[in-house]
Structures are given as C-alpha cells and as structure tokens.
Amino acid sequence: MAPVDLSPPNSGKAFFSSKATQLRRIIFFGSVILFNLLASLWLADLFWRIGLQKAHFPLLAIFVLLNGLLTLGSFHAIFGAFDMLRGVRRAARITKIADGRSGPLDKRHAVVMPVYNEDSSRTCARIEAIYRSIEATGHLDSFDFFILSDTRDLDLWVMEETAWTNLCRKLGAFGRIYYRRRRTNENRKAGNIGDFVRTWGGGYEAMLVLDADSLMDGADIVKMARVMEAYPRLGILQTPPKLIRGSSVFTRLQQFAMRLYGPVFIRGLNFWQLGGGSYWGHNALIRLKPFSEFCELPALPGREPFGGRILSHDFVEAALMVAEGWEVWLAWDIEGTYEEAPPTLVDHLIRDRRWCQGNLQHLWLIFARKLPFTVRMHLFMGIMAYLGSPLWFLFLLLGTWVAWDRSTSELSRLPFESYVDRWFGFNGIEQSIILTCFIFTLLFLPKILSLLRAIFVPQIRKSFGGTFRIMTGVTLESIVSILLAPCIMAAHTLMVISILLGRAVGWGNQNRETDGTTWGDAIRFHLFPTILGILWTVVALNIDLTFTAWISPILLGLVLSAPVSVWTSRVRYGLKLAKHGILSIPEERNPTSVMLLAQEARGATDPALNASGEERYGIIAAVVDPYVNGVHVSLLENVELRQNEEVLAEKCLIQGPGELSKDELSDLLYLGPAMLLMHRAVWLRPADSIHPIWTQAVQSYRRRLYQTTNAA
Q1: 704: domain range?
Q2: Residues 630 and 598 placed together within one structural domain of the fold
Q3: Could you give the 3-state DSSP secondary structure of residue 417?
Q4: What is the number of alpha carbons within 13 Å of residue 365 lying toward its C-beta?
Q5: Is residue 373 included in any domain, yes or no?
Q6: Fewer CB atoms < 10 Å away: N or C end of the chain?
Q7: Phi/psi at 153 (nearest 5 deg)?
Q8: pLDDT tens digits, residue range 383-414?
C-alpha cells in the first residue's frame, strides 16, 4: 500500500487569509502590551515619587505580569464586544462553510464518551439523548457511538454493562453503540482515547470527543461534521460548552456567569486565535488521521509531578496539530453544546489540583522549537491560570511589608520629581486613585459590557428573565466572586507549592451530585486561608485603618472562606434563588430539545436486567443473576480455566468476595468460565456450603416472587 499523505492540504483557498490573521494578532496583542506598559510606567513613576525601596522592584515586576494577565482578559471582552457590534456576517465564523449544505454526509464519524467511575444511568441517558437527537436529523447512519470505560470500581463496571445492554435493546442499537472497558487504564483519559484511535479510529473520518457529563444537540453535531468534510485543512473543531443542571448556589453562580459573560470572551478569543485555536478536551470534533499520526503524547523527562505522563493533554494535542500545519478552530456559534460543573467550591478545587499539575507540566513545552505563536500563548495562559495566584499572593505580601515598613520607620523618605506631576499636574493621591480606577475598570469592564449587551438586546434580556433579574444576578455573582477569589488564591498557592515539593496528584472521579459541604469538611479544607486571614487582619490593623480598608476585600474573603464555601454548596438555597428566577439561565427557562430528551431518557434502566439491587449489587449480581451473568460473560473472551483460577473461584464462593483482593476479583471477573462456574454453584449447591452473601442474594429472588404473587 502507498503511504498515506497526512500533511494538511495546500490546495484550495484558506478560510481566513494569513495577512488578515497577522494583522488581527498585531492589533490585539499590541493593544494589550501598550496598555500594560502605560499602567506599569504609571506605577513606577508613583514608586519613584514616594521614594523607592528595594521591595518596590519585585512589586513592579509582579505588577507587570499580573496587570498583563488582567489586561489580556479584559481585552478579550473588549475585542469580543467590538466583533459582536460588527455583526455576524463580518465575523470569522468557520461554520459558515456548512451554510446551505444538505444531503447525506460523505464520511463516517464516531461519538466517543470516556467514563471513569461514573453513574452509568446518567451517562447512558446523555448518550441516548444525543443518539435520538442525531436520529431526528436523518443522519444516524453516519455515526457510531462508543462508551470507553476506564472504571476501576468493579461494581460500577457491572452496572455499566447492564446499562449499555438495556440502552442498546431499547434503541435497537446493537452494532451502533459500543461499550469497551480497558483492563489497564494506562495514561488516564489520553490513553483511553488513544486506545480507541489505535483500535477503531481507522474506520472513521473524525471523532466527537465527549466528557461523561457532556450533552450536544444532534443538528449541531451534523453541522460540525459537514464543516469537517468540507474543509480539509481543519484538524479540530472545538465548541464552547455551556454549564447546565446547576442546583447548588456555587454551580448556579458558575453557569450564570459563563452564560452571561462567556460570549464576549469567546468572541474575543476567536478574534485573534482563528485557525490557531486550542482543544479543551471535550465537546470537540477531531480529524482522526492527523490526530493519530501527530498527537501521540510522549512522557516528559523525570517523574511526576513535572515529569511523566502529561495530564493536561488537550492543549498539547492541539499544539501538535497546529504545529504540523492543521487548523484548530473555535465554533463560537454552536449553541447546543453543554456540560456540568462540580457542585461545590471544595469539589471545584479538588479538580483544579489535577489541572494545576497538568498545566504546570507545560513549562517543559512552552519554549519548545517550531511551535507557532498561538500555541505558546495558549500554553502561557494555561500556566498563568495557576501561577497567577501565588504571584498575586506574593504581591499582597510585599505590599503589606512596604506598608508596615513605612508605618514603623521613623526615617523620612525624600520625594523625587514625578513625570506624571510634570506632564499632567496630578499629586500623589490623585495618581494612586487613577491607577486604582484603571485596574478596577479592567476588572469589571467584561461584566459591564456583558450586562449592557444583555439589557439592550431584547432576545437576550427576555431569555434571562428581564432587566431586574439580570442586574440582581450580576450583583450577587460579583459579590460572591469577590469573596471567593482570595480563598481560591490561597488554595492555588498551596497547590503550586505542593507540586514544587514533588507531590503528584492521583486520578479520582468527579463528584457531580451532592447536597453540600459539611461544616467539618469546610473548616478542614479552608483552615489555612481562615488562619491566614485572621493573622493578616491583625497585621493590617497594626499598620493603619487606611491600609486595612484597602486590603479588606482580601481579608474578608480569607476569614469567611469556610462559611461562604458551605453556603454556596447548599442546594436548598440554590433552589430558592431559582424559584425567583435569580441566577437563571436561558436553558432553564426554555430547555432545548436535547436537554428534554436527556431528562426523559430511561433506556438504560430495566427491572429485568438490573445490577443495582440491594442484595444483588454489582459483582454479586454478575455471579447470581442469570441475566446479568449472561451479559457479563458474553462480553468476555472465551478462555480455558486454569487450576489456580478455579481455586480462586472456589475461594470466592466459600469465603465471599470480601476475602479477595481487588486485583483477584478483577482477574476473576475477566474469566468467563469462572463466572459461569460460580453462577451454577450459587444456585445448585447447598446453602451451608457457600458464603451467606450468595445465599441471601438467591433468597431475594424468592422474596420477590412471593411479593409479586401476593400483589397479583
């Protein structure tokens, strides 16, 4: 066979010209650099004016970095708002390639959902909703679905099998929806996806990668597939997912903020990145051939946390794709793309610990050769999302030290000539106030622009419930965000320190459902910021009241970190806000068709095939229940049972599964003959010859039969 040419096609017209792309990036980053330079010079002049100290030099250096990040974020919103004012027709919209196209798709595509210790009924409900949504478009024949399990909980493994079987039976989808569990979950999610690409990827043009909490509209998926087929330069098409199904105050705040403020940031991001975008790990369509060829991730030098396997693989995969000449676009106008958020601040920070380590690993890559500018920028922004917190913390500490030194020192400081005073005639106080106003403007401008857009666009205003509800939501979100920011700063600082000390993170499943953080957990988790806030308040009061007032938002957020964490975790408060339409999003007021399909999906649940009964749960059902045992065994390879494996099965029968190690149980569950042997034994052997856990499970069938007979 002739080798396959995997270089991006150079024939045909590019969607966006290289000259226009360079001009946009020069304008955007030139504006960011200019405004950051002016603010930094203004602060340097202020330091010079009041008399330089040694601490002023690191303060100024950190300010340049932090203000640069703040300016970068604000200018995303500014350019996004500008792009919106220009109108959709003049915007860089990659999906316009699919406008007016109809008819069947030319290629086959895969929808893949990696799962790890998830609620199988919920994941299958989302698969069912996406399946039915694509089916409604008439293009179901062009898609296959894959549930790629890395689940380590053996009970959940069995329940995944039964949920998948029920779903396929309900939809008539055997041969279209596939389930696979990896025996060894090497390299976490990246390894899971990589295993799919190597095993089945050759049969498909592209794969739509989902998370376990992802949901996407079928019409939008078909549209994305049309774009992929019509534009051969396209390597990855990323969508901006919206947060949904938030119940606690914390998740409702997150989804409201993302839904209201997100569009201007997304448009600003698209303004400069264009075909050099990034991949966020899910809700994205990926062309499989170049992904398979170029995106195999090497292990980094050394051991974790900085070495070893790359945790934040998505940014790197996009970087490799762009470096090879393929385009990565953000489909900002795709509306039917959703995900869910961690329900509490504690869960959010636990997830952040994994992302922090993954993003800091990118320090190895940001200066690698041959990486395009946009790739380096995405890696830099990801790194600074976590390094920004310890830098902010250090800036505040240095500021406190300078204030303490000025208040306790009896030495007078000689003022120097100020260029600001000479040119503009501002005194020191006025100069400080102007700089403070500039920083607060940058901080709140994205919210203001988003708020104005929501109020003055009737369709958006109505979708959020009117001006009063929008204003109330923005006010509440702003207050809580100010209180949460110092706590998150302290948590991220500890994360970075622990990683620098060589402490690697594990791989845990995400908590998607909870009824709130307990007071005990909150106090333990937020002990450091609470104590820090109390001590810092004492120091500030000993300096003077002016300094205390200036730093009070930080101190208040630290001291109240535990109460705020508990309050925002409560579902009952979130439901009260929802009852009055506060922090509501358009999808709550008017759910989309795919959201309704997911709410109504019950295909994975069937009383006849169920491994979640009280006395027949997971592994027990796989041994005792005829249907569950049959499904489980049918998915195993047919192997010969060796003597030591038969001994292991007998041990499980006589002593119970609790006497086996997890590895022994896992090995046993992979042996079809052993599972059949155990199934026959629990039904045929005398009760006193096997462990009571099996006899109780068998007896539960008799009780169910008795109850059914009496009910009849």
Answers
A1: 619-711
A2: no
A3: coil
A4: 32
A5: yes
A6: N
A7: -75, 115
A8: 999 999 999 999 999 999 988 887 777 555 55
